[in-house]
């Protein structure tokens, strides 16, 4: 069975480490915050200028001056800091964020990522995505393995305009955990019950399948 | 006005000198921390042919979005413009030019502009459409783009508290692009919720020192929330 959005978030959460500063993109990455392991301290960075993003507020504590990068109202945790957009991107570009998780339309075997623009449809803008992928060393891309019509999103060459070049090393799809090494996707784990054949069939870029590919485990 | 007193009492005076074709740098992220009354004054003036530099362009009917209603904006420099149907329509009709700029690059363009740095190198955007037509250079085996900084004829800024000398403090995440915009205007206008007496603000807590600020005005704010999200 392909992973649900919640299971994808759970799998990404297994990559968190105590003391990590983490930037979570919109969509599935946001859900990762719900699965921070018990007893682990992680601080969430929101690129509009908040380090230490907390839960959504209550009706009583709602504040127009406290939002996240998705423009949702949020709270700050104890120990949070708030700063300008230049400071925020100094952290991001300077490589101070330990883990960045974001969605994508396509990823290719060279670590290129396309996530912001589909030509001839409305172009909304890249927001902070280009800075995040250029600045972070440890990035996890989360996306479905194939489009609704069955087209692979793991390609030899991205077909859409890029967000970043050669910057992606880890991809979690609804079918598999893959890492990009030497111009190939390497299958590291598969979703419970998903066959290697299905993953092969839905991966357009060159795929290396080791002798043993464990199934993901969830607590 | 005398000495360092930057306070003005009318929005008309606050935006005095604004002319057609000028470049305006605006603070704010989404609708958070936007100089909503200064924007309304620009609409009242019907100034045309503006280049506006801001992370977003408001929404239909609020924030910078209201300047689209009478086609006052010629060119928008922003990182994300997804919340605005009128924007989309004018863009598709060719009535509006847009220069999509990565958010961190946009922030740095303002910061550098205000700091007298004409351009800077960044890895952001290398190998993407953002790099088209830009110089690149390698440092430490990595490729970087040369990005030019931005200076505005006006910078419009929303603060929380200011003193009469134009020292400004921002509230929570309404800070965002505001302190950067404040440095990068030939004329910087700050509207705040409260003007306090000189000496009331703790000097070490000031976000924008008054040297960057030309005019300060106290306003009242709607502070519309784009996405009200509460926990159940």
Automatic annotation (TrEMBL), chain A:
The keyword Transferase applies. Pfam families: CoA_trans. One of its GO terms (molecular function) is CoA-transferase activity. The keyword Transferase applies. InterPro entries: 3-oxoacid_CoA-transf_B, CoA_trans_fam_I, CoA_transf_AS, NagB/RpiA_transferase-like. Gene3D superfamilies: Glutaconate Coenzyme A-transferase. It comes from the Bacteria. Keywords: Transferase. PANTHER family: KETOACID-COENZYME A TRANSFERASE, SUCCINYL-COA:3-KETOACID COENZYME A TRANSFERASE SUBUNIT B-RELATED. Belongs to the 3-oxoacid CoA-transferase subunit B family. This is 3-oxoacid CoA-transferase, B subunit.
UniProtKB/TrEMBL annotation, chain B:
The lineage of its organism: Bacteria, Pseudomonadati, Pseudomonadota, Gammaproteobacteria, Oceanospirillales. The keyword rRNA-binding does not apply. Keywords: Transferase. GO terms for molecular function: CoA-transferase activity. This is 3-oxoacid CoA-transferase, A subunit. It comes from the Bacteria. PANTHER family: ACETATE COA-TRANSFERASE SUBUNIT ALPHA, KETOACID-COENZYME A TRANSFERASE. The keyword Acyltransferase does not apply. Gene3D superfamilies: Glutaconate Coenzyme A-transferase (3.40.1080.10).
């Amino acid at each position: 069975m392909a992973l649900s959005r919640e299971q994808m978030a759970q799998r990404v959460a297994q990559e968190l480490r105590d003391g990590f500063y983490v930037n979570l993109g919109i969509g599935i990455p946001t859900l990762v915050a719900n699965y921070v392991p018990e007893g682990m301290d992680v601080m969430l960075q929101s690129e509009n200028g908040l380090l230490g993003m907390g839960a959504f507020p209550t009706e009583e504590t709602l504040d127009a001056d406290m939002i996240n990068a998705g423009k949702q109202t949020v709270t700050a945790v104890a120990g949070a800091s708030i700063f300008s957009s230049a400071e925020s991107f100094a952290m991001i570009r300077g490589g101070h964020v330990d883990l960045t998780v974001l969605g994508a339309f396509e990823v290719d075997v060279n670590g290129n990522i396309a996530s912001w623009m589909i030509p001839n449809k409305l172009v909304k803008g890249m927001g902070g995505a280009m800075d995040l992928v250029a600045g972070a060393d440890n990035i996890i891309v989360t996306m479905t393995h194939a489009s609704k019509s069955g087209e692979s999103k793991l390609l030899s060459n991205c077909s859409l305009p890029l967000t970043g070049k050669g910057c992606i090393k880890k991809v979690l799809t609804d079918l598999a955990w893959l890492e990009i090494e030497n111009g190939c996707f390497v299958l590291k784990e598969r979703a419970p019950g998903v066959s290697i054949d299905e993953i092969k069939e839905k991966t357009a870029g060159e795929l290396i399948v080791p002798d043993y590919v464990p199934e993901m485990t969830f607590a | 006005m005398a000495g360092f007193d930057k306070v003005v009492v009318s929005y008309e005076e606050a935006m005095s000198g604004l002319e057609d074709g000028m470049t305006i740098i605006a603070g704010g992220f989404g609708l958070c921390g936007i100089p909503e009354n200064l924007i309304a004054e620009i609409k009242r003036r019907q100034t045309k042919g503006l280049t506006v530099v801001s992370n977003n362009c408001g929404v239909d009917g609020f924030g910078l979005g209201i300047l689209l209603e009478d086609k006052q904006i010629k060119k928008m420099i922003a990182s994300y413009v997804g919340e605005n149907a009128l924007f989309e329509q004018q863009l598709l009709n060719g009535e509006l030019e847009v220069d999509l700029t990565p958010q961190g690059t946009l922030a740095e363009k303002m910061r550098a502009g205000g700091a007298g740095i004409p351009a800077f190198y960044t890895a952001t955007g290398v190998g993407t459409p953002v790099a088209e037509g830009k110089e690149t250079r390698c440092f430490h085996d990595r490729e970087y783009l040369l990005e030019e900084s931005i200076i505005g004829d006006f910078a419009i800024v929303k603060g929380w508290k200011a003193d009469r000398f134009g020292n400004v403090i921002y509230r929570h995440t309404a800070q965002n692009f505001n302190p950067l915009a404040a440095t990068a205007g030939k004329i910087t206008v700050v509207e705040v919720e409260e003007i306090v007496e000189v000496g009331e603000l703790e000097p070490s807590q000031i976000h924008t020192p008054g040297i960057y600020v030309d005019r300060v005005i106290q306003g009242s704010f709607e502070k519309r929330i784009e996405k009200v999200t509460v926990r159940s």
